[in-house]
Amino acid sequence: xxxxxxxxxxxxxxxxxxxxxxxxxxKGFNFTLMVVGESGxxxxxxxxxxxxxxxxxxxxxxxxxxxxxxxxEIEKRQIDIEERGVRLRLTVVDTPGYSDALNTQDCxxxxxxxxxxxxxxxxxxxxxVNRRNIQDSRVHCCLYFISPxxxxxxxxxxxxxxxxxxKVNIVPIIAKADTLTAAEVCKLKNRVLQEIDEHGIKIYEFxxxxxxxxxxxxxxxxxxxxxxxxxxxxxxxxxxxxGKKIRGxxxxxxxxxxxxxxxxxxxxxxxxxxxxxxxxxxxxxxDVHYENYRAQHISEENKRDLQRERKLKRESCTSLDxxxxxxxxxxxxxxxxxxxxxxLKQMQEQLHVSGGRANGTAC
Length: 363
Ligand code: GDP
Known about the structure:
three-stranded antiparallel sheet; Rossmann fold; alpha/beta; 9 strands; elongated
């Protein structure tokens, strides 16, 4: 067995994690969260509840006419949050108008284009001169809101997830869970999971828990995974219950508490998103989704270069044919001139001979 080291036997690299920690804290963190789902499903309320802020103060709700004709918009809001000296720059990307318009096909395309544009910008910045200060605007997580009123996923939900699942980490959530009984929540969760499986949709996969983690953590991780799709309740109202301040919704028959694990999975969602899996969501974005984009982008660029090269070659070949034709024509002309000069010479010689003969006869 190894003998424990004495103080003067330490080299000092045990402090490396602290150095990394200090540097990371100094730099601050950034995270981009996208919320997608029909309007009125409680997206803004949930974001405010999650980050205990009012990120949507200046929001304007469009009229019915506007919502029918308008295409999906992409709206970015940024806030800086600080907790115990750690700074987080949170960007929330909202998609007002999503599935409001009668033509829902373009909704997914608009969101897909946005996600691609962020990848393209990152790729451009990464290939540029100043790589040290890249602003990462890639979408690290997409909370997809499923309506509690249906019997499972709607067509637009399936279309969206199928189109985006290889570009962004999708975390499905059941909105306004207080409108369902516990049994209905359970039934809807099972149905949603079954449909996700049937359609081959890849939602964000929680990493396996390390075997050396403590039992409490393992249990927490298991419960987190079992709760997907998270059922959530949002509220911006603070109520007082038994002298305790809570976020909840006050109904004539009682209060539903946002933070109560018996009422919904809000706490699990917050824990996963902020405390335990934020870095993994960023890592998967970098290592899987961005790498996919990068590989595809580079291969498309190579293909374009190849096509351009072939076109150039073809063009230079046809101009080369022209040069060959002109050369041949010039050669023919030269030959003709040479032949004519020959003929002229012969004629001159003949004239000379016959002239001489005539002269001779005269003598
Ligand atoms: P968004 O359009 O998806 O951003 O939806 P909002 O956050 O603006 O919420 C629309 C309405 O639903 C508001 O009146 C909210 O008070 C209400 N709401 C938000 N979250 C919940 C919830 O969890 N349960 C219930 N019953 N209503 C909610």
